[in-house]
Design goal:
The protein is an all-alpha fold. It is built from nine helices and no strands. Helix 1 packs antiparallel against helix 2, helix 2 crosses helix 6 and helix 3 crosses helix 4. The longest helix has 28 residues.
Length: 180
Amino acid sequence: MLDNYLKLIWAYLKIGLFGFGGGYAMLSLIQREVVDSGWISSQMFTDIVAISQMTPGPIGINSATYIGYVVTGSVLGSLVTTLTVVLPPFVLTLIAAHYIDRHRQSPFIKGAFMGLRPVVVGLIASAALLLMNSENFGHEINERIITIAICIVSFCIVYFTRVHPILVIILAGITGLLVF
């Protein structure tokens, strides 16, 4: 039992320390740590991501809370994973904010940010590709066509119009309910 807690702490310590770019950028790290270790299945990971996106709060924290509960079967597991994923970036942010504020015009700071920005975009793109799997797009060809159409239409509505993303999520859910 203690072994699971220690493994969770180690996994989420790595995720918290190296999860640059926020929750979506963390997804590939989370997937590697929890799915590849066998704690949860790929299908469950996809479901957790979907639930984490629909609930208030950051996706990385929401998924940590849920995965901690699933792996340990306890609220304590949820608390441990949540704190472990939150505390490292919190401490790093405090330290970095102090340092950056004092050395804002430094070429070193400017260069570091120029290097980090494309990495964050790459990590978010990696998360998008990670989620393009059969669990999200279906196993049958007709399921894939419909889900890809829902994906493209949702993207176009959000990107090219002023329709609120929450409304798009609700409409996509209703569409899925009616079609599937």
